[in-house]
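Quick check before the chapter quiz. The format below is the same one you will see on the exam, so make sure you can read both the input and the output lines.
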Amino acid sequence: MNMPFTDGVGQEKRPDRSGTARPDRFWDRAAGSVWDGADGAARGRARLAAGCQDGGVEVLSSRILLRPADLGRSRRFYRDQLGLAVYREFGSPADPGVVFFLGSGFLEVSGNAPGPPGQSVMIWLQVRDVHAEHERLAAAGVRVLREPAAEPWGLTEMWIEDPDGVRIVLVEVPADHPLRRDQRNVSSAAPEPGA
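Here is the expected output.
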């Protein structure tokens, strides 16, 4: 089947053979089908507007969480030896957790391993509404390790587990949280010397 070129979320961008763009066609990648006609295209666009193209979780951001046996050693490895760029540091200034840029995602190195090696890797997924995801995932039979809860650091988090025991945290970032603030203006707020 020759699938149309899309904008990455399902809307067809390539014109048909006449050279005319087809706004009345919507490709549902998840279902592997093309919805023709104004009604079909409207249904496809409505599914996207509701959060995502296939009714699953809408991931806004993600990161891999690494809880090392020795935080300082791992921080030096990823920052100084591997040379990953630092996105942000948090926690104790004496022994901070660090979030590194990792291509289009992030690697968070923080805390200490809660158990044997292999259980120190987790997946962090930022979602728009963690309570709605809790309802949806619980109804789908996903193993919920911990229901949504407000954390002392200001995020709302819930924990689930994949079939192999990999822990996944779903995180909602409130509108007033520092993660939502533009950090580029923080250092520019101080007046220049002599001003």
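If your answer matched, good. The CA atoms of residues 84 and 106 lie 10 Å apart.
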